[in-house]
Amino acid sequence: MLKPLTMGTALTLALATFVSDRGAASAGAADPVVVYTALDREFSEPILNAYAKRAGLRVVPKFDVESTKTVGLTNLIVAESVRTRCDLFWNNEILNTIRLKDKGLLAPYHPSRAGDLPETFRAKDGTWYGFAARARILLVNTKLVAEAGRPKGIKDLLDPKWKGKIGIAKPLFGTTATHAACLFANLGDEKAKAYFRGLKANGVQVLSGNKQVAQAVGSGQIAFGLTDTDDAIGEIEVGNPVAIVYPDRGPDDLGVLFIPNTLAILKGAPHRKEAEALADYLLSPEVESALATGPSAQIPLLKSTKSEARVETPRTVHAMEVDFEAAAKLWDRVAAFLADEFAG
Predict the structure, then answer these.
(1) Are 17 and 304 within 8 A, CB to CB?
(2) How far apart, in whole angstroms, are the C-alpha atoms of residue 128 and residue 119?
(3) CA distance linking residue 61 with residue 310, whole number of Å
(4) In whole angstroms, what is the distance from residue 343 CA to residue 132 CA?
(5) Fewest CB atoms within 10 A around its CB: which of 120, 143, 175, 222?
(6) Domains of the chain, first to last
(7) What pLDDT is recorded for position 70?
(8) What is the largest CA-CA distance in the chain?
(9) Distance CA 103, CA 75 (A)
(10) Rounded to whole angstroms, how far apart are CA atoms 123 and 11?
(11) 3 CB contacts (<8 Å, ≥6 apart)?
């Protein structure tokens, strides 16, 4: 595993080499660009600040909160659709971006590096683009779980020997909700419902977010839990006794789910030109490299990004095959089911 750079160092290296024609063209623009971002503020704000300084314009970010991760900003965008305020939506997952597209709230655009992305991670109509992914993984406390007894897949969360000693984030928001919808799309309603009911029956601890799941594993509050690679890396970096398991990674297994950040320009964006310039900047090898080598250890998706990932990628493990568009259409039904099972 490569030693991580600090976010500031990574951004300095990125900015030293990054030149965007669109960004340069807007460097003297007086209008601000309004960005709603669901990526953790500690990771996204330095990048936005660096761009604002380089481009010579004001970037006005609105960050979400952990308790309503992604969903809160999505609902705000819908509520504001009669008078759009947001220019660019930087989501930390994919399904809510697609839901906005399905509501007709996104405008197509064509960033210069769109062709560098795998087809799975870009919209056919140009309304959204994925980059800098995370993997959904199991984080294990190595003092509580012997190496020979480590879980191999998400179904191991149902094993009665771990009853009450496992955890997930509240599955109504963020990447946990996205993971749930993808499981419904992949497994079908009957098997997916049985899985989540099985988690509940096995005494799963439902925590406020993925970071809290990772911290609970690191502290020994739970033996293992389902979380994201960025939160897992945080526990590894502080020296807690944890190990990452990439679940269902075998060629005949369900596969590891990789969830990208996504970028989308709002239909009727007040500052469309500035939004396109910022999107071009974010969808670049330099920014992906900064996110990959920085503390969040994001996974590059652009073919032109040369930085080595610090975690497994879709090129190194079997990835879950999932139709994100189909999963997005299941969102409301899955959310209603999960609210009945886990709300409160």
Answers:
(1) no
(2) 11
(3) 28
(4) 30
(5) 143
(6) 7-133+260-312 (3.40.190.10), 134-256+331-342 (3.40.190.10)
(7) 77
(8) 62
(9) 12
(10) 28
(11) none
Please name which of 136, 87, 125 lies closest in space to residue 279, comparing C-alpha atoms. Answer: 87
What global pTM score does this model have? 0.89
Say which amino acid occupies 243: A
For residue 334, what are its two tokens?
A: 């899955």
Distance, in Å, from the CA atom of 220 to the CA atom of 217, rounded to the nearest integer, reads 5
The total of other beta-carbon atoms located within 10 Å of residue 163's CB is: 12
- Cα of 3 vs its chain's centroid, Å: 22
**How many residues are present in the chain?**
344
Q: What is the 3-state secondary structure (H, E, C) of 151-214?
A: CCCHHHHHCHHHCCCEEEECCCCHHHHHHHHHHHHHHCHHHHHHHHHHHHHCCCEEECCHHHHH
